[in-house]
Specification:
The radius of gyration is 56 Å and the shape is rod-shaped. Helices cover 52% and strands 21% of the residues. Strands 3-2-1-6-5-4 form a 6-stranded antiparallel sheet, with helices on both faces. The protein has a 5-stranded antiparallel sheet with strand order 8-7-11-10-9. Strands 13-15-16-18-17 form a 5-stranded mixed sheet. It is an alpha+beta fold. About 2% of the residues have low confidence.
Length: 575
């Protein structure tokens, strides 16, 4: 019982505490997560647009060189003469110095430019380099750009390439450059040469790194072939998840979540038409959802605290209520046994103290009532002893049992049966025996007026039942069902075992009950009302319900002029 009280109180306190916190925490988590997601997408797209503008602005600075070497006829002719080395005149030498100055100006002014090459197709494979001046492919340590130019068969006039180069032959370790190619076209738009601008990727990397706003964020610039051109980490080889990144870059959405190397990431992507570049921001989910996670942790913490608090309150109230119940039980036991009452609370503070005070008052009232009851018991015992004396006096006249001694004996047995432990259950055979004694007395009064038929299995005689159940029903048949006349009346008492219940039926062929009267009797039985002329019937019904429960008791059926049936159904118990 104590555990049930505890679980009930726990649910009573835990549910009102936990549900609002859980709902509030969940709404806060999802709303904050959605807001953070939208803000990150918005900020990342602004960031990527800015990066795209900066990089493309950097590329646009080389357009002037391309225009000069592509469309200025005097420059094209003079440069071709120099590369063909047809005339090594003073004019050519001066022109050569001018070309070198033109190329070195952006190199010297832009820290991210490593070198610039200008090449027109010539038989000697000469080209101009900002590092070496006029040189040939045969003597240069960097020739892979030429292969890229020759092998490029696309219609694009501008493209990018990642290359590893060495400036000097004695260098053992190459370094990386990003080469921007601009084709030089003839009048018929056929490629006749190329300008190559080599850029330090480290410079762009430092720029991208400075724009990072979230822990673990990476910014990438990829070409249309998903080749990483620039990234905030440094070398693409530093990225352990290049394959996953390339697959993620093919997603058509501009903002999405994906798993890279087994970890969740949020991807923002911006596609530029210039050179077909893709600008990508990669942020670990744990970095951007730190605020929602903190809310989730706070919600869990509050749930745990609320649960512990509810647990403590439920335990305290359960312990308090259980002690109060034990106190009430102790008072009731003391009242029943007549022992001294436990100490009472000083004042009424709750429903338990109110009950305890009222029980205590009733206990003293009950003691007074018991004194009156003890006094009233003198008369029944006196009557029993007097009947016993009358029996022997009647016996002394005839010196044998007679009708008077039989009536006195049956009446004495009934009185003794009623007075002996009235609240204790008896065996069914004892209840039958007492009922038979009552019937014998009534048959002595109403000679040949009625006959009683018993129908039951003797195996039921040891079942337990409360006292004085059948006698009031027999009495009801005699006084209300049997009217004056010459008709022979019958009472049948039928006892059956139905599943786990015992059914007792008392059937008579008396005068019956009118429909209106029967309805009143049934209503009074339902509302537990005994203010009627059938007090024995209602008293029996009340005792049955108090002993066995509300669903048990009396059922009555009757038809005027034909008789009445009263049913009793009680559960079969061992005691």
């Amino acid at each position: 019982m104590k555990r049930k009280f505890f679980l009930k109180n726990l649910a009573m306190f835990i549910i009102p505490l936990l549900i609002p916190i859980f709902i509030l925490g969940s709404f806060s988590f999802f709303i904050t997560q959605k807001y953070v997601k939208n803000e990150i997408n918005k900020n990342n797209m602004i960031l990527l647009n800015q990066i795209a503008q900066n990089i493309e602005m950097m590329l646009d600075e080389f357009n002037a060189l391309t225009i000069s070497f592509n469309h200025d006829y005097s420059i094209v002719v003079k440069l071709r003469q120099i590369l063909d080395r047809r005339n090594n005149t003073i004019d050519n030498i001066v022109a050569m110095d001018m070309f070198k100055s033109m190329l070195k100006t952006p190199v010297n002014s832009k820290p991210y430019i490593h070198s610039i090459y200008v090449y027109y197709q010539n038989s000697n494979h000469y080209f101009i380099s900002t590092r070496d001046g006029l040189t040939s492919l045969d003597s240069s340590t960097d020739t892979s750009w030429y292969n890229s130019f020759i092998e490029n068969k696309t219609d694009k006039n501008t493209w990018l390439d990642i290359r590893n180069i060495r400036e000097y032959s004695f260098e053992t370790e190459p370094f990386k450059v990003i080469s921007i190619y601009n084709k030089l076209l003839s009048s018929s738009n056929k490629p006749t040469g190329v300008i190559v601008v080599n850029i330090y990727p480290e410079y762009v990397k430092d720029t991208l790194k400075g724009l990072i706003t979230y822990p673990g964020q990476e910014i990438l610039v990829m070409d249309e072939n998903n080749q990483i051109i620039f990234n905030s980490t440094g070398s693409p080889s530093d990225l352990k998840h290049i394959k996953d990144l390339k697959e993620a870059s093919n997603n058509n959405s501009s903002f999405f979540s994906t798993t890279i190397s087994g970890k969740p990431y949020v991807i923002s992507k911006f596609n530029s038409n210039r050179l077909g570049l893709k600008y990508i921001s990669i942020i670990p989910q744990e970095a951007i959802y730190s605020v929602p996670k903190q809310l989730a942790k706070l919600t869990c913490f509050l749930l745990i605290v609320s649960f512990i608090l509810g647990l403590a309150i439920a335990y305290y109230i359960t312990q308090k209520n259980y002690n109060q119940i034990l106190n009430i039980i102790s008072i009731i036991n003391s009242a029943e046994t007549g022992n001294k009452l436990p100490p009472l609370p000083n004042r009424i503070t709750d429903e338990y103290s109110y009950i305890i005070h009222n029980i205590s008052e009733k206990q003293y009232k009950m003691k007074t009532a018991q004194l009156i009851a003890l006094q009233s018991q003198i008369n029944p015992h006196f009557l029993y002893n007097t009947l016993h004396a009358i029996y022997w006096e009647a016996f002394s006249y005839t010196r044998k049992p007679n009708k008077l001694t039989s009536m006195v004996s049956n009446l004495s047995d009934i009185l003794k049966y009623s007075l002996d432990n009235p609240y204790q259950k008896v065996k069914l055979k004892d209840e039958i025996s007492n009922t038979q004694a009552y019937i014998k007395i009534q048959q002595s009064r109403y000679i040949d007026k009625f006959k009683v038929i018993w129908s039951y299995d003797e195996s039921l005689e040891d079942l337990s039942i409360i006292k004085l159940v059948m006698q009031p029903l027999i009495e009801n048949c005699i006084y209300h069902g049997f009217t004056n006349g010459d008709k022979k009346y019958y009472i049948k008492i039928k006892i059956l075992k139905l599943n786990s219940c015992l059914k007792i039926s008392v059937i008579d062929n008396g005068s019956g009950i009118t429909k209106e009267k029967l309805s009143d009797i049934r209503n009074n039985l339902e509302v537990d009302n005994d203010h009627s002329d059938r007090i024995g019937l209602f008293n029996t019904n009340k005792r049955l319900k108090l002993t066995y429960g509300e669903k048990y008791g009396l059922k009555i059926r009757s038809k005027l002029g034909h008789g009445t049936v009263v049913y009793i159904r009680i559960p079969i118990t061992s005691n």
